[in-house]
Design goal:
With 86 residues, the protein is α+β, with helices and mostly antiparallel strands. The protein has two helices and three strands; from the N terminus they run H-E-E-E-H. The protein has a three-stranded antiparallel beta sheet with strand order 1-2-3. The longest helix has 36 residues.
Amino acid sequence: MNIQEKNESIKRTMVEKRELRQKKAALDRLEDAINTFDNEACLLTLSADGNTVTIHFISGRRKTVNIHCDSGIAMLYDVLKQGFIE
């Protein structure tokens, strides 16, 4: 691997880490909003690779939502639609 390829790899890694932080922050806010209306109904966890969100309901039920390749807005939409609307 030459220097240019290493630099590109480092940039990609930095972007991926930033996107994971942003998705985690957005999920924390969504969790707060859901629990405001649903009395501590759930916990949202982002997988380490950022490809899935697991919804842990207070009843013990779990729902996994695929968010692979989703933008931030699409992720929020998918979590709400698959976890709470369907």
